[in-house]
Structures are given as structure tokens and as C-alpha cells.
């Protein structure tokens, strides 16, 4: 897998809101760091290091989602509830995955966790966040 292509920020990911785009780029870079960790030789602490990085990514997601949700509420975004529900579902999924990684019970490979996060993230940008960006830009 070519991480330069798989986890590279592309202009087409932009939602047109500088703050959101900057946060998206930070999260994408952190997910790329997870991929780098996957490629390292297996060590006793690899699972824990991976789980620790997932926790950092989760914190970035939480902050990003909080910022997006504040923007949505401030501009009376009509799809706020469904967008927030999607945020909440991801955070719950990540929490469960992280617990399983820490306990050595993760049924997915670490690489599959990276793929899951990246795919969810890009799908969310193309779906919900692009719509939000359009709405916010029109309301300015």
C-alpha cells in the first residue's frame, strides 16, 4: 500500500472552511502516522503504541466534531442531528476498537483499523462535511 497516495491530503477533500480543512489535514496526518506504526517490526509495545496513537486521534476527532457541531448550531444547520449522530457513532466505534487493542482482543489487524479510519474519514468529508461546507459558505 502506498501511504503517499492512500493518506495524502487532496484539494478535492476541501470543504471550503479553513478551520475545518486544517483539522481534517491534521487528522489525516495522524492516520498516516498509524500506518507508519503498522509497518514497524512487531515489538512487545507495538499494540500499546498503536492504541496510544488511536487515543490521540480520538481526541482530535472529538475536538474537530465539537468545533463542527458548534458551527452547525450557530448557523442553524438543518442536518445537525444526523451529522452529530454520525460523529457519535464513530467515537463509540473507536472507543471499542481501542479497548480491544489494549486488551489484545482486536479481531481486525492494525492495518484494517487504519483502513477503517481513513475510509470513514474520507466518506464523511465527501458526504456530510462537503454539504456542511456548502451550507456555511452560503450563509456567510
How many strand units?
Answer: 0
Which CATH architecture? Up-down Bundle
- Global outline: elongated
Query: What's the CATH H-level homologous superfamily?
Result: Hemerythrin-like
Catalogue the unreliable spans: none
Write down the secondary-structure element order: HHHHH
What do the pLDDT scores average to?
87
Summarize the model shown.
This protein is mostly helical and 140 residues long.
Core attributes:
140 residues, mainly alpha, Four Helix Bundle (Hemerythrin (Met), subunit A), 76% helix, 0% strand, elongated
Protein described:
This protein has about 140 residues and is mainly α. It has one domain (about 15-140): Four Helix Bundle (Hemerythrin (Met), subunit A). Helix content is about 75%, strand content about 0%. The chain contains five helices and no strands. It has helices at about 5, 20-40, 45-75, 80-100, 110-140. The mean pLDDT is about 85.
What's the layout of helices and strands?
Blueprint: H1 3-6, H2 18-39, H3 46-74, H4 80-102, H5 110-138
